[in-house]
Every structure is written in C-alpha cells, then in structure tokens.
Amino acid sequence: MRSRKFAPSNRLEIIGIDGLPEIREGNDLTRLFLEAVEAKKLKLEDGDAIVFTSKVIAKSEDRVVDLSGVRVSGEAERIAKETEKDPRIVQLVLDEAKAVVRLMKNHVIVETKHGFVCANAGVDESNVEEGRAVLLPKDPQKSARLLKREIEERSGKAISVLISDSFGRAFRDGVMGICIGVSGIPALVDRRGEEDRFGKIAQITKEAIADEICAAVNLVMGEFREGVPIAIVRGLKLERCESDIQELLFSKEEDLFR
Amino acid sequence: MRSRKFAPSNRLEIIGIDGLPEIREGNDLTRLFLEAVEAKKLKLEDGDAIVFTSKVIAKSEDRVVDLSGVRVSGEAERIAKETEKDPRIVQLVLDEAKAVVRLMKNHVIVETKHGFVCANAGVDESNVEEGRAVLLPKDPQKSARLLKREIEERSGKAISVLISDSFGRAFRDGVMGICIGVSGIPALVDRRGEEDRFGKIAQITKEAIADEICAAVNLVMGEFREGVPIAIVRGLKLERCESDIQELLFSKEEDLFR
Questions:
Q1: Is A211 on the interface with B (CB under 8 A)?
Q2: Do B215 and A212 touch (CB under 8 A)?
Q3: Secondary structure E strands in chain A
Q4: Is CB count within 10 Å lower at the N or C end of chain B?
C-alpha cells in the first residue's frame, strides 16, 4: 500500500428552496429568494452556489408567450407537419434558433441564439398556464451575473449563481440538469498539468463543473413539477472567479456531432 | 398567488469516502468500503445510494493491462497515425469497441461492447502505474448488482449501488460524471402522466436520474486525482427497484447523432 496525498473527505449539501410564489414579470427574484431562505430558518454562507431554474428567471423577465398571438410562417408549418408538433411552438423555436440541427417526431433540435444545442430551443409548455409557453431567458449569462451581484450586495456573502435547464443528450435517453449561465465560479475546471496519484501529469481532462452542479440540483428540484425552483449547493471548494457559459460550448467546427 | 401542492423542501447530502488502499485484483471492495465508512465514524442508512468510480471496480476485477504486452494490428496502427495516439492504446480501444463512431486528433470515439458511446472506450492511463492502462469493467451492470447484494447482506441496510465514469459529451466541452451500472433504484425516472402545477399532464419527460447522481458525486470525487473513489448520496427519495443501465442507452437507430 503506497502513501497517498489527496484531499480529505469532502461533504456537500444540496438544499432545495421552495415556498416561492408563482413568479411574474418584474418580480424581484433576489428578494423572493432571500425571504424564502429566511422562512426556512437558513442562512446563506460564503461559498454557497445558488442554482435557479431557467423557468423562474424566464418568468421574471417576461419570456412567457401567449400562443394565440403567434404568427406561423410557411417554414414553421412545414416543420410542424414533419415533426407532428404545434406550428405555433415550432414558430417560437425557429425565432429562438440560430440553426436547425436535427428534426424528428415531436422534436426540433436547434442551436439557440445563445449557442445551446437542445430540443425545441428550450421552449416549454409545462408549468405555465394553458395556451402559453415559456422561452429560455434572453441572456442567461447576464441574468446570472446580475443575480449574483444583487444577492451578494443584499446578503453580504460571497456566493455564486448558476441558471439550470434540463436538456436531452446525444447517445443517452432522458433529460439531465445542465447549466445555461454561471457567475462566481468556473464553468469548466481545467485539470491539465495536475498530477495523478502516481505523479503522472494529466494531459487533457477538463471537467464541466457547472453542468455537474446543475445536474446535482435536479435531484432535489425534480424535473417536472417545479415545486423547488432554487437550490443551494454548500461545501464546494472552487476558486472564486468570473467565467462564462460560452466556455462550455463547442463551436460547430469543434463539434464532432453536428 | 395560486395554491401549490408540491413536495416539501428537500435536502441531499453527498459524502466522499476516501482512505481506501490502492485497489488490486481480487480485493474485497465491500469489506474495504465498509471499513472506510466505519473509520469515518459514519453509519450506512436505508436509502443511501453508493457510487463507486469505474476505476476501483476495474482494478478489483483485474482490468489493468500492461502496454508492453499489447500486439498492435494494422488497423490500430492506421488509426493511431490519424489520431496521433499510442498504437497500443488504440489497439485496446478497438478490442473494447463494437463500432468506431468518430475519429479526431487524440480521440477515438467508439461504441463499447456495453453500448456506451465514449472517447477511447474508457481506456485510461491516469491513476495507474506508468506503462499500464485501465479498461472499463467488463460488465459494470453485473458488478453493480453484486456489490449492492453484498453491501446489503453485510450491512443490513437497503441501499443502491451505482458505478460512475467521466465521459465527454456532444455539443459541450468538458467531461461529466455518468453512470455505467446501477442497482436498487431506477436508471431513468419516467414522469409521463405526472401533473404540472397547473394540472397539465406531462407528455414526454424522462429524467436520467442515474446520470445525475453520478454527475453530482463527481463534485466530491474530483475527476482526476481519484483520492475519493466512492461517495454516498443520502436523502434521495426514489422507489426501490431493479433497473439496468441499458434503459439509458439509445440504440443506433434511435440516436439522432450517430
């Protein structure tokens, strides 16, 4: 048995924050979040990572669309037929998209204007009134930065903010929590140059830490019911820095699967 | 503000288990794990999900290969040149593969015999002695089942076992924890038929819960140093059942990106 020099045992806590009202345009999410934390007799701590679902961000930013007002183009009609989807939803997806990546029954896989490759551009009819749909936040990276700054100012704690959504993947069934905006910690941890336990130098490993955090909180949020729109991850030992979700995205040229 | 009926606030704890010796073929992982838990003055609880990295499983099953003994085929030589990789590693990758999916510099993306689409068939030279490489476990689904049964028998607790690895993804940079074997909980939670908070019925959402759990534990394991080869996730509220990692895998015909 060889001697080992590795980090001591590590504990992480994930705390779901529920009890928020239905979010409407213009709501002060920072205040609602801090009130919900207090109502649970919790206190924020330095280093907490706070994850908001994209849906509460989108609702607070009025990214909710009334389907009856959507004007459907010929292209949307055609794709709607091919995919057996609601033409109004397809129109919203196309409006949010930079490029169509793949089409299949019930799915339009696109690259969104933000650069995310996902089904239906994240346009979602669940957890909103009948006849309406929620888009992804317009600029979730900016939303994350603003929320981080506001929460830090009002709480006095050094925290990070992530915005999560649930995306399907290539190769594997099922959706998974994924990050669409991050502020205060790295999006990607680059481990190149670190030594392994045999003293060899890592060559290529980068870890998508922001996506792992958003996947982790899905375990307390549940994907569908949206009863827990915010979660705190406590115990992460990450450097504090500004990063950008763009660091996680392959361009089309780098991407083997587009 | 409408009335809401959703699950109460939820807390999850992730506990990294370190302090295990370097694992060798034939080691009794169940005993080493239970001793490490006891050394930390922890007690297993009913409902705990226990995640093992694939590497400790592979090492205990003698899936470590001495590169000097690898005989390189013409095909491996050719792919090694194209990808600028060690021909002996390429040979191991081909031996583990059912099909080559994509080739690029330093990467051979394959479908493994298990059905996992990943870089280099999971063959890894980190955290093993110089001149050796670790393969994925031969049948990680079976390994998960065996470990679950043994841990339950010896601890008297109703637990689940998952085996994790770190895979790259399409569309996004960085690796992420992912599940390659699961026993005792669902691999995939099917939410079709559940109501959202507006009483509408979910149509299509399936959540890759086993992958989310393995992504979450990567936050305490670290991807590279392998100081924390096992982690306990405590507080999950999942039905107890037998499942199979195959439920998470798209066949080539279902997969839009192969």
A1: yes
A2: yes
A3: 11-17, 49-53, 64-66, 97-104, 107-112, 117-119, 132-134, 160-167, 176-183, 189-190, 206-207, 230-234
A4: N
Q: What is the helix (H) or strand (E) element at residue B78, kind and residue range?
A: helix B74-83
Q: Looking at the structure, tell me whether residues B93 and B186 fall in a common domain.
A: no
User: How many CB atoms sit inside 10 A of residue A38's CB?
Assistant: 11
Q: Report the side by side order of strands in the sheet with A107-112.
A: A97-104, A107-112, A117-119
Residues B85 and B204 in one domain: no
Of residues A4, A166, A209, nearest to B227 (C-beta): A4
Instruction: Based on the fold, state whether residues A89 and A210 are members of the same structural domain.
Output: no
Structural domains in chain A (count): 2
> CB distance A171–B170 less than 8 Å?
yes
Answer whether residue A256 is part of any domain. Answer: no
Name the residue facing A212 among B107, B216, B236 (closest C-beta): B216
Three-state SS for B97?
A: strand
CATH of the domain at A204: 3.30.1330.100
Question: A84 lies in which domain range?
Answer: 64-135
Query: What is the C-alpha radius of gyration for chain B, rounded to an integer number of angstroms?
Result: 20
Please indicate whether, in this complex, the C-beta atoms of B212 and A219 are within 8 angstroms of each other. Answer: yes
Residues B213, B242, single domain; the answer is yes
Query: Is A95 found in the same domain as A54?
Result: no
> Domain for residue A255, yes or no?
no
What is the block-wise mean pLDDT of chain A (258 residues), using blocks of 10 residues?
A: 39 94 94 96 96 96 96 98 96 97 92 96 91 97 98 98 96 96 95 75 81 96 73 94 95 84
Containing B17, the helix (H) or strand (E) segment is strand B11-17
Answer whether B49's CB lies under 8 Å from B232's CB: yes
* Nearest-10 Cα torsion for A161, A167, A169, A175: 110
Note which residues in 113-132 of chain B have CB less than 8 A from chain A. 116-117, 125-130
Instruction: Enumerate the H helices of A156-238 as residue ranges.
Output: 209-221
Quote the minimal CA–CA distance from B7 to chain A in Å.
7
Chain A window 59-78: which residues touch B at a Cβ cutoff of 8 Å? Answer: none
Inside any domain, residue B161: yes
End position of a domain, from candidates A135, A167, A186: A135
Examine the domain organization and report whether B148 and B45 are in the same domain: yes
> Is pTM, for the whole model, over 0.90?
yes
pLDDT in tens, B68-114: 999 999 999 999 999 999 999 999 999 999 999 999 888 899 999 99
Does any domain span residue B210? yes
